[in-house]
Please model this.
Amino acid sequence: MAPHTEQLTRPAVQLRGLTRSFGGRTVLDGIDLDLPAGQFTALLGHSGSGKSTLLRAVAGLDHEVAGSGQLTAPGRVSVVFQDSRLLPWRRVLDNVLLGLDGKDAERKGREALEEVGLKGRERAWPSELSGGEAQRAALARSLVREPELLLADEPFGALDALTRIKMHALLRELWERHRPSVLLVTHDVDEAIVLADRVLVLEQGRIGLDLTIDRDARARGEYRLRLLAALGVTEDVR
Ligand SMILES: Nc1ncnc2c1ncn2[C@@H]1O[C@H](COP(=O)(O)OP(=O)(O)OP(=O)(O)O)[C@@H](O)[C@H]1O
Ligand SMILES: [Mg+2]
Model:
């Protein structure tokens, strides 16, 4: 099979009956989910609904979830969090290269920084970066690993509105160029619709709504209402 065809047919992530409880309280209640390779998916849900728990499980960061169901994920996974998690004692390029070796690593690191608009800041310290720049460095650090799956847990949650809009464009552009599967956790319905091709709503430990987004801008208002309704917001509060 040609690699391209294979990419379209084989899911990158497959969950069957994934369950996670904390102290007898069930947070993920038998989740079944397939994420096709190369798809950009957003995950919405109330605070405490289990979004980060699901993301951590898929990232392989939750060892106790194993055995609760079936979980298949690619080998090369990168995770981006709300804070950049750059090491303050390493310069930006060294943060991007952390844990990488091979003679090409530095060149790739420099290229990744250029892709996120940080060319020239390779030798800066993390403390010298703005919040948006630090998140861009975090994106470069994940990109340089050429992930098959990019997991992002509210990566823009701490940024101001204008920086957020710029980051949306950058993330979508990077996704179009590299085509990893993306699972983006967000609180923000509009962010989900702008960025993703598919939006999931997590409620009571299950996927309550699974919405495919046709990127035709005319339908956006309708998606917004459906997603807000799934999140229990029925009045127009704007
Ligand atoms: N390590 C843990 N020990 C005990 N309870 C936990 C643990 N991790 C998560 N929980 C609980 O599981 C529930 C889901 O948490 P999670 O962080 O996944 O929510 P979330 O949807 O990401 O919320 P938010 O939008 O606020 O980030 C919460 O009630 C939380 O208290
Ligand atoms: Mg969370």
Remarks:
- The mean pLDDT is 91.
